[in-house]
Amino acid sequence: MKKFTIHIGTIVPINIINIDTDIIIPKQFLKQTTKIGFGENLFYNWKFLDNKEKKINKNFILNNKIFKNSSILITGKNFGCGSSREHAVWALLDYGFKVIIASKFSDIFYNNAINNNLLLIRLPEKTIQKIMLMLQKKKKIKCTVNLIEKKIILLNIEYIFEINPNYRLKLLYGLDNIDLTFKYIKNIINYEKNNQPTYLKNRTLYS
User: Fold this and answer.
1) Which residue from 44, 40, 5, 9 is spatially nearest to 24, judged by alpha carbons?
2) Can you give the pTM of this predicted structure?
3) Tally of CB atoms within 10 A around 23
């Protein structure tokens, strides 16, 4: 997996709460099992006015050329609620999003994001709404997300965020769950050696 340290990209606001996984990627697109190809159908029912002719919805922000290559999404609370489909995370990544910012995420969606190294950042709801107001007055805005220092820089204002240390480590070093486990393998072996039941004493745990 790719390392994530500092990312600079265009930020796009979708100020809607309770965006569920069916909105992110509708169920008719879940037949494939590879992680590639979902991006074109991200927010499908918002991008198009009808399913048959695929008439573009000009009012949907991601159809605006200014935000076409956005890589940072700021959105309403409870993002990713609904079903547990991992495809929602795949679609966001395949579209090109690197960071999602909200005050609250669905727990299952959050775990799916961790497993796929999509950075989710929680900020207080008041802060989210202040940023939304700022973005209404501007058009294309670049945002810096610094995972090393755990901060966001937007319009010369810094926002500090907290993140699970293991999640941060995975992103910084481009690790998956197995890689992360192996980083602690010596600690795991020592723990098991020191906590063996009596009948396993003096036996080799690992060759």
Assistant:
1) 44
2) 0.85
3) 19
